[in-house]
Amino acid sequence: ALQISIGFMPIKNRKRQDGVIERLKAHLAEVSLVTFGAYGDMATVSGVRSNVVNETPRLDAAKKILSALQHKQ
Q1: What is the largest CA-CA distance in the chain?
Q2: Among positive and negative, which fits the CA dihedral 43, 45, 46, 47?
Q3: Which of 2, 20, 21, 68 is a plausible cystine mate for 45, CB 3.0–4.6 Å?
Q4: CA 18 to chain centre
Q5: How does pLDDT run across 3-53, given as a tens digit for each residue?
């Protein structure tokens, strides 16, 4: 199973009486799918939204915009 690795920089924390540090505010730098994540089974990918694997949404959107602009000229 894939896990999630989350890269962040803590901005505001709170240490509870039991010693657990709560992240109240953080800057999210990256989110990655990995084989062995920093948080282990606590951040496991349990499903996917689509079974389309070879889709490039940003590239496809850019091609549509470019095509529309070319047809307007």
Answers
A1: 67
A2: positive
A3: 2
A4: 30
A5: 878 888 999 999 999 999 999 999 988 888 888 877 777 766 666 666 555
Residue 5: other Cβ atoms inside 10 A: 16
58 or 47: which carries more pLDDT confidence?
58
Provide the pLDDT for residue 2: 77
Scan for tokens 């949404």, then name that residue.
57
What is the rounded CA–CA span in Å between residue 31 and residue 53? 19
Give the type of residue at 17.
Answer: Q
Instruction: Please name the residues in contact with 44: beta carbons below 8 A apart, sequence gap of 6 or more.
Output: 1, 2, 3, 4, 37
